[in-house]
Amino acid sequence: MSADYRPMWTKLGLNLEKHDVLLGAVGQMYTGTYLSQKHRPEGMAYFDFVISEVHGLRIQEIVAAREAGRIVVGSFCTFVPEELILALDGVSVGLCAGAEWATDAAERYVPRNTCALIKSAFGFTADKVCPYLAVSTLIVGENTCDGKKKGWERFGDLVPNLYVIDLPQKKSDEGRALLRKEYQRFAEKLVELAKQPLTVEKLKAAIQTVNAKRLAMHRLDTLRQAEPAPISGLDVLLANQVFFYDDPVRFTTSVNKICDELEARIAKGEGVAPKSAPRLVVSGCPMAVPNWKIHAIVEQAGGVVVGDESCVGARGTQGLTDGSANTLEGLLDAIVDRYLGIDCAIFSPNPTRLEHLQAIARDAKADGVLLYTLQFCTPYLMESQAFETKLETGKVPALRIDTDYSNADSGQLKTRIEAFLERVAR
Ligand code: SF4
Ligand code: SF4
Question: Which of 98, 172, 230, 321 is 20 to 30 A away from residue 38, measured at CA?
Answer without folding.
Answer: 98
